[in-house]
Hints:
Family: Belongs to the ABC transporter superfamily.
Enzyme class: translocase
Number of helices: 14
GO biological process, one term: glycine betaine transport
Distance between the termini: 19 Å
GO molecular function, one term: ABC-type quaternary ammonium compound transporting activity
Organism: Sediminivirga luteola
Bound molecules: adenosine-5'-triphosphate
Amino acid sequence: MSDLHAPARDDADVMIRLEGVSKRFPHAGADAVRPLDMSIRRGEFVVLVGPSGCGKTTTLRMINRLIEPSGGRILIDGKDAAAADPDQLRRGIGYVIQQVGLIPHMTIAQNIGLVPGMLGWDRTRIAARVDELLHLVGLDPEEYRRRYPKQLSGGQQQRVGVARALAADPPVMLMDEPFGAIDPITRDRLQEELLQLQQRIRKTIVFVTHDIDEALRLGDRIAIFAEGSRLAQFDTPLEILANPADDFVRSFIGERAAIRRLSLLRMSDLPAAPGPESAAGSVVPAAPEETVAAVLDRMLAAGAERVEVAGGTSFSVQQMLFAATHGRQLHDGRGAQ
Ligand SMILES: Nc1ncnc2c1ncn2[C@@H]1O[C@H](COP(=O)(O)OP(=O)(O)OP(=O)(O)O)[C@@H](O)[C@H]1O
């Protein structure tokens, strides 16, 4: 597997490449998407984020040719998308949208089995795949496979939407505000589930949202679009929070960037604490994968002076904050493109 935080070394690392891709709709006075260059690596989770009308959805839908570009070229796994048969192209690209788009008179199993059916899989293979996918998205097949979409909650329908998009095991998934219409608590859970799922399936995901917090939480890299589809910054969440490219990005990410960065940084990201250790004060233990914010919260609640990270390093509160704000060298080079 390629290191997602290193620059793409060669074309073999790139799954989706946009080369000067633009779109002008008929009778429109300006481009909905101005010539755009972007490379998305194999297994990378990229989030397109930006204000309404800046061209995120249009960009996404050009990748599976639901919208035909007016200019430029899109390469998927090195092949020109324009040369592919559009139906075949779309079967190889999972697509999840906010409205879910489940077919109301079909059962959940039939909805999920739609694309495998088109690909000519036999019934037994489809049934096994449907059950496997329901398990994968956390729905008990016994309970859900025979239900109809309206007998499911919004969050459950969205899980089925993800299962359906994964049915034929496509290497690429496009997700257009999939959690936009879901209540905040369910949305939070679906985001967490999607991250865990991605750990296991490692698809190349392009995800559209206008919610910067969702983008920061989900993306390996985030493409921040400004008005007129200008790509203001394309980088890792940590880098964007630490080094916004311009005033637009700064105002789009909003307040408390440094604090929010602590919610993304893991203890294992911190360089070793400098200076001598003081023996005084109580100590809390922490796991390397815990975020700095979570550990800090525990230390403050316990009135602890030090934290000991399993496997070695120990920090005082001050050392930990210093490492979190000055440990930039660890992240330099990430996301360079
Ligand atoms: N079919 C169409 N015909 C004409 N103009 C369109 C069409 N679809 C989109 N546009 C225009 O293209 C621009 C980009 O739209 P797009 O839907 O890609 O933006 P977006 O960033 O996804 O916005 P939102 O967050 O509101 O969904 C907008 O100005 C929109 O009005």
